[in-house]
Amino acid sequence: MNIVKTIIGIGLLLGFVIVVATCSGAEESSPDGAHDFPAGHPVVDETTVEQVSEGQRLFAEAGCAGCHGPDGLGASAPHVIGHSADIVRLMVRDPVDQMPAFDADQLSDEQLDKIAEYIGNLSGSRADVERAVRRGITHQQLAIHAIDIKDRDDALYHLQNSVRYAHDVDRIPELNDALALLESGDWAGARELVASGPELQGAAERPLEQMYLDLGVLALRAGDIDDSTRNLTIYVDLSDDDSARADIEQTLELIEAGDIEQALAIAESLLSVLERS
Ligand code: HEC
Predict the structure, then answer these.
(1) Ligand 1 mean position to 99 CA, how many Å?
(2) What residue's CA is closest to ligand 1, atom 9?
(3) Least confident segment among 100-104, 121-125, 148-152, 269-273
(4) For a tag site, which of 42, 249, 268, 271 has the least CB within 10 Å?
(5) How far apart are the CA of 74 and the centre of ligand 1, in A?
(6) What is the residue with the minimal CA distance to atom 38 of ligand 1?
């Protein structure tokens, strides 16, 4: 499973940080009082460090950073934290929607591997990765619901986002097939392909409106304002809990006013209350 690899990757990275921190803590001051690393002080395997920083440099040079932010944390395009190397390779060579494709002339396989490794090691927390995975699964769950109520636009939206936020590279072709089936009017075929996904087996059953709230919060965290607004507005339409609705109406106003931090605080605390009940 890619997610397992990602978590292991982050674990290794944290281990690396701890090693560096431990080693530098043991450093002695140089005579003039400055804290220098002594010459030739290989705390970790240097090839790894070189490769990772090379990946970061390529991420900037190839233009990825221009859309995904200098640290991959998101800018005009979504953040890339939590994406396995497989997904990165696939996205770069064969992107789903607005992202431009990079062919081997623009970016060699070797360079792409370095970028993929850099992204795979980005220091998102385990919680960030879990959120990113949940976003993909929730879109698939809501795609099924939209298909069941024959809401074509909503089904297309959720399916496109199921592809975008898929974390299992093997699922992407199937989800793309489901999208094509839906576009051709084969609702049942599309539903079957989505519902057969291994990541949906055992996924928590949650009330419909709560899934929209969750998506709204996840998008807001990732800086996708339009996406967040869309899903929070649907939450307000669906929920019959007056006080929760008032919270999210206030959240939407805060988003519009640009106070994302406060908006996130209100929406996340509502979500955690609802999740516990
Ligand atoms: C012109 C802007 C742009 C550039 C340049 C770009 N991307 Fe993207 N990228 C996007 C957009 C937008 C998405 C969301 C999916 C879509 O619309 O295609 C995306 C999606 C992704 C994703 C999946 C993330 C997600 O959650 O959807 C990865 C991984 C990714 N890009 C990696 C890269 C890498 C690596 C590079 C550089 C080689 C790169 N991108 C260059 C715009 C860009």
Answers:
(1) 5
(2) 99
(3) 121-125
(4) 42
(5) 10
(6) 64
Q: Which residues contact 235 (CB under 8 A, 6 or more apart)?
A: 209, 212, 213, 216, 245, 248
CA separation for the pair 274, 204 (Å, rounded): 14
Q: How confident is the model at residue 133 (pLDDT cuts 50, 70, 90)?
A: confident
Q: Can you tell me the distance from the alpha carbon of 110 to that of 131, in angstroms, rounded to the nearest whole number?
A: 30
Return the CATH superfamily for domain 45-124: Cytochrome c-like domain (1.10.760.10)
The yes-or-no verdict on residue 2 having pLDDT over 80 is no
CA distance 43 to 28: 15
- 3-state SS, 14-52, equals HHHHHHHHHHHHCCCCCCCCCCCCCCCCCCCCHHHHHHH
Which of 2, 68, 108, 134 to mutate for ligand 1's pocket (most ligand atoms within 8 Å of CB)? 68
Domain with CATH 1.10.760.10 in the chain: 45-124
| Chain region(s) in the chain for CATH 1.20.120 | 126-200
- CATH entry, 126-200, from 3.30.830, 1.20.120, 3.10.450, 2.60.40: 1.20.120
Residue 275 is predicted with a pLDDT of 87
Ligand 1 site residues, Cβ closer than 6 angstroms: 62-64, 66-68, 77-78, 80, 83, 87-88, 91-92, 95-100, 102, 107, 115, 164-165
To the nearest whole percent, how much of the chain has pLDDT over 90?
A: 48
Q: Whose C-alpha lies nearest to ligand 1, atom 27?
A: 164
Which of the four pLDDT bands, split at 50, 70 and 90, describes residue 268?
very high
Each residue of 210-233: pLDDT tens digit? 999 999 999 998 788 999 999 999
The pair of three-digit structure tokens given for residue 146, joined into one six-digit string: 């939209």
Q: Which atom of ligand 1 is nearest to the CA of 222?
A: 26
